Amino acid sequence: MMESLIREWDGETVIVHYDRPTGAWIFIAIHSTRLGPAAGGTRMKSYHDVEAALQDALRLSAGMTYKFAVPGIPFGGGKAVIAIPSEFDKQSCPAILRRHGALIQQLGGLFFTGPDFGTTSEDMDIIAETGAPYIFSRTLAAGGSGSPGPFTALGVFTGIQTVCEHLFGDMTLKSRRVLVQGTGSVGGALIDHLGAAGAKVMFSDVDEGAIRHFRDEFELKFVPAEAVYRTECDIFAPCALGAVLNADTIPQLKCRAVAGGANNQLADPENAKHLLDRGILYAPDYVINVGGAMAILGMETQGWARDQAEKEVAENVPRVLRQVFELAATEGITTEAAARRIAEERLSAGM
Ligand code: PPY
Predict the structure, then answer these.
(1) Is 178 exposed, middle or buried (0-12, 13-18, 19+ CB in 10 A)?
(2) Which pLDDT does position 88 carry in this prediction?
(3) Per-residue model confidence (pLDDT) at position 243
(4) Contact 292, 67 (CB under 8 A)
(5) I want to staple 346 with a disulfide (CB 3.0 to 4.6 A). Which of 69, 118, 165, 192 is the partner?
(6) How would you label 75-114 residue by residue, b for 16+ Cβ within 10 Å and e otherwise?
């Protein structure tokens, strides 16, 4: 039920737009503007039903609030979902993106967007035709700062180093077995960093082209989808869609830590306790995957150069992750609860 989803959500506002020409639904969830205007990616995909799309927007927008609050980025949490019908004609993509831009324009600065699953910097260029100046991460050619993916991957990589430091007393990744689930813009770039650092990388994907690329050309060990959760490794790095950590998968895990770029990895925040009980260190998703948003917002609102953005990401992700691990250890709480506490403190202080 849409009513109960919204009633039980702790956010501020939901904008609902029915896109008559295509039959798509657009939801823009504004979870919090406590620390600044809401920002978050535009996710475009088809969903099983409209409720699932709304639920995704609501949950993802809350994740953005915490993502910005923990490292102290002055934006609030939001997310847009364009739920396209299953028989969606790709030809209507530019037009729907322009209508999405017009909607964001009408909001007058309540919500800023960037790319998420199913959208790219090229799509941001199209959204910006009607949605400027509220659109981040346009292509370099259009005067934007390009894709957040490589910066997210850099942050996840430095976060994995921090996890190794915590687990093994040593940041080095040499010979550590890392299983990367999903080889899209984040997972693919993460694999490059891991390979360069001497890690033993395994990967899983469902896309045939990606499998051929990483297995046959990169000669990495391929793990089929059905074996991902029970594959033995040091670090499991989810970099695909969410809710991969749940009551079904957690008992199967044979890793020392979960540290990856996907949003909403826990099906329920309660699952963090289950990971702790199993002795698996969890790097909270919104802490370790902030690099993309941090870099793009820094470059587009603070005037950072690219190398400065990289430096900020590579310093801040490890710093905040160490703080989370320390708080969790001293308080005897999950890392998820520790990250949430840091976020809530900033939110209640308004800074
Ligand atoms: C995310 O970090 O999940 C995003 O939504 C990406 C984002 C947000 C704001 C600007 C650029 C990218």
Answers:
(1) buried
(2) 87
(3) 83
(4) no
(5) 69
(6) bbbbbbbbbbeeebeeebbeebbbbbbebbbebeebbbbb
Spell out the domains of the chain, with CATH numbers in brackets: 2-65+75-142 (3.40.50.10860), 149-289+319-345 (3.40.50.720)
Which atom of ligand 1 is found nearest the CA of 63? 3
233: which residues sit within 8 A by CB, 6+ positions away?
Answer: 177, 178, 179, 202, 254, 255
Residues 79, 174, 221, 254: which is the catalytic one? Answer: 79
- Centre of ligand 1 to C-alpha 319, Å, is 20
Please, are residues 236 and 245 in contact by the beta-carbon 8 Å criterion?
no
Taking residue 279's Cβ as centre, other Cβ atoms within 10 Å add up to 8
Whether 79 is catalytic: yes
Q: Which of 28, 35, 37 is nearest to 61 (CA)?
A: 28
Q: What is the pLDDT of residue 177?
A: 97
Q: What is the mean pLDDT of each run of 10 residues along the chain (351 residues)?
A: 94 98 97 97 96 96 96 97 93 96 98 96 98 98 97 98 96 96 96 97 95 94 95 97 90 97 92 96 97 98 97 98 97 97 93 75
Q: How far is the CA of 152 from the centre of ligand 1 (A)?
A: 9
The model's pTM: 0.94
